[in-house]
Design goal:
This is SOCS box domain-containing protein. InterPro entries: SOCS_box, SOCS_box-like_dom_sf. About 20% of the residues lie in helices and about 30% in strands. The protein has helices at about 1-25, 35-45, 60-70, 110-115, 115-125, 130-135, 395-405, 420-425; strands at about 50-55, 140-145, 150-155, 160-165, 170-175, 190, 200-205, 215-220, 225-230, 240, 250, 260-265, 270-275, 290-295, 300-305, 325-330, 340-345, 360, 370-375, 380-385. Strands 1-20-19-18 form a four-stranded antiparallel beta sheet, sandwiched between helices. Mean pLDDT is about 85; it is low at about 1-25 and about 100-115.
Length: about 425
């Protein structure tokens, strides 16, 4: 056991050290956008998995390097406060949400101060007037979103409910999941299934005489509760496997007595397919270091993002702060076994700042991962792009190659069957 821990520790230190050295060396940041694209296509063929493909400043990333490297999501920083301006799954900057400034006299100061930027926007722009004014519905936060579908945390008469909004049609689709009490935003977590038909929500139990948290699985079309299961640990995180419409999720700390575990679960039976009982090399519990869980675009990899716990906001007087340590543990999407670990430093507060400040983003082809980090010697923001291992069958490898060749906006116009076009877009089960 000691030898394994020592090896893991050396591996993590080496990963961090390599990132710092590579960040100081090389001249990738001097490239123009076209040179970045050409260099990326050249390197990606010969580079080994987890190799550093590109590095640049955050300004250069925003000014064309990110798009040239085939990343459609280039927002890597946000000044929003989590659970106030943003939620774990919805960033006011990344989704392009602006604060609504209501100057009319009937919007009292007391009412305005009650709502955050995000909640205020949705309440005044997407909730029907008769619900907010007559039935007294208020928006607390965005619970989760996928594409144009957004699930809101609503409150009415001190009771929590959930609302469905179609942003594309600008339509409020209804309410589901009425609860007996009002929950704070921090107590809730949700995710929509890859096909958009189900919503899985983690929330405190409301059963009389019981404590702890539960998973509740809802069908969005009918707004009915399909299944519910009690959780062994309150801090369990979950994510749907993008390869399947609704049938598989990855969950941390799902099995009793396994607080440092990652399990693959069948939905809605909650059958445990496999479990990795050692996610974190140095802690017996994933709480409070585990911040988020996500799949790669093709579903063959799972990323568990862990950060230094506690508040790391800038001190008001000295304006100094200590960087957080970010560790990305990578697991096999079919076996949950540990594959790799990347560690880096970031000047952000993992407790209060928006998650986009330290979370990795994935390229359109799904074979590259970008992170924003800081060297300890300087607070300057750097972006590094790493090559991910291409796993799965020949079909998946061909998809990556096609996405390397054609820009994302041209994929839907290729002379291919509709089912194949959907596969190229990472649609689950080729829907």
């Amino acid at each position: 056991m000691f030898k394994m821990a020592s090896f893991a520790q050396r591996r993590r230190k080496r990963a961090c050290r390599m990132g710092a050295e590579e960040s100081r060396n090389g001249n990738y940041g001097l490239m123009c956008a076209s040179a970045v694209e050409a260099n990326m296509n050249k390197q990606v063929q010969s580079a080994r998995p987890w190799s550093l493909l590109h590095q640049c400043s955050l300004d250069q990333w925003n000014n064309g390097h990110g798009v040239a490297a085939a990343f459609s999501e280039t927002t890597m920083t946000c000044n929003g406060v989590v659970f106030k301006d943003c939620s774990p799954s919805f960033c006011i900057n990344r989704q392009g949400l602006l604060n609504v400034n209501k100057s009319e006299p009937f919007f009292s100061f007391r009412r305005k101060s009650k709502f955050t930027k995000m909640a205020e926007h949705f309440e005044y722009n997407h909730i029907p007037a008769h619900l907010s004014s007559i039935q007294n519905f208020h928006v607390n936060s965005v619970l989760c979103c996928q594409g144009q579908i957004v699930i809101l945390h609503l409150v009415r008469n001190l009771m929590t409910q959930f609302g469905i909004i179609d942003l594309k049609a600008n339509k409020f689709l209804g309410i589901f999941g009425n609860q007996r009490v009002e929950f704070i935003n921090e107590a809730l977590r949700g995710e929509i299934s890859p096909d958009g038909s189900l919503c899985l929500i983690k929330l405190p139990t409301t059963r009389v005489g019981e404590t702890g948290f539960v998973f509740q699985l809802y069908k969005l079309a009918t707004k009915e509760l399909l299944s519910e299961v009690n959780l062994a640990y309150n801090h369990a995180l979950f994510v749907f496997d993008p390869r399947f419409s609704t049938s598989r999720i990855a969950v941390t700390s799902f099995v009793g007595g396994e607080d440092n575990s990652l399990s693959l679960i069948r939905v809605p039976t909650w059958e445990v397919m496999t479990t990795n009982s050692r996610v974190d090399d140095f802690n017996s519990s994933l709480n409070p270091n585990l911040k988020d869980l996500k799949y790669s675009r093709d579903g063959h990899l799972i990323f568990a993002v862990m950060i230094t716990s506690g508040c790391h906001c800038k001190e008001k007087k000295a304006r100094k702060c200590q960087p957080i340590d970010v560790s990305i543990y990578v697991f096999d999407g079919d076996t949950a076994q540990t594959l790799h670990c990347i560690q880096y430093h970031r000047y952000a507060c993992g407790q209060h700042s928006c998650l986009v400040n330290y979370m990795p983003v994935l390229s359109e082809c799904g074979s590259r991962m970008a992170i924003v980090l800081n060297d300890l010697e300087t607070p300057i923001d750097h972006v590094q792009i790493y090559k991910l291992p291409i796993r799965g069958n020949l079909q998946n490898r061909c998809r990556v190659r096609i996405l390397h060749t054609f820009p994302p906006e041209t994929i839907k116009n290729l002379p291919l069957p509709r089912k194949l076009i959907r596969y190229l877009g990472f649609q689950p089960d080729y829907l």
